[in-house]
Amino acid sequence: MNEYEEMRKEIDIYLMKRFKYRLSLVRLTPDNILITRRNSRLDLYLRIRRVESIFPPDCLILAQISFRKERIGNGTHFVRFLSEIALKYGFRYVGIESTNKKSSSFAKKLGFYSIDGFNYAISVKNLLSYFQDRR
Fold first, then answer.
1. Which among 38, 62, 68 has a CA at the least distance from the CA of 49?
2. What pLDDT is attached to residue 43?
3. In the chain, pLDDT over 70 holds for what percent of residues?
4. What is the residue-wise DSSP string for 39-52?
5. Cα–Cα distance between 112 and 87 in angstroms, integer?
6. Average pLDDT, the chain
């Protein structure tokens, strides 16, 4: 099992436990994108990128994340989990792609910096520090 498949498995287990699913939710596409099966509680689209693009290299990019129940901490909890996954697998950044008003506010709240007004990134070190300071 390669590292991307290991990441898929860990994220899948996290989501299954957090949202009480019995069946696998996450699959890995051939171009290293993790996506969830369409369901009523959550939607996830996560790009795994080692090369530089508009985002820095070694970046886990949240292209889409939504939860049926909003503003109860699911997004923050997932980003905290994602920062730990990023650290474990040697990623140095987490990004949020193509934000809208809600997701850009969320990114700013967590300390992400704006790349171009629509895309945000933060170093894993800074993100872990953000969560450490709030314990």
1. 62
2. 86
3. 98
4. -SSEEEEEEEE-S-
5. 17
6. 91
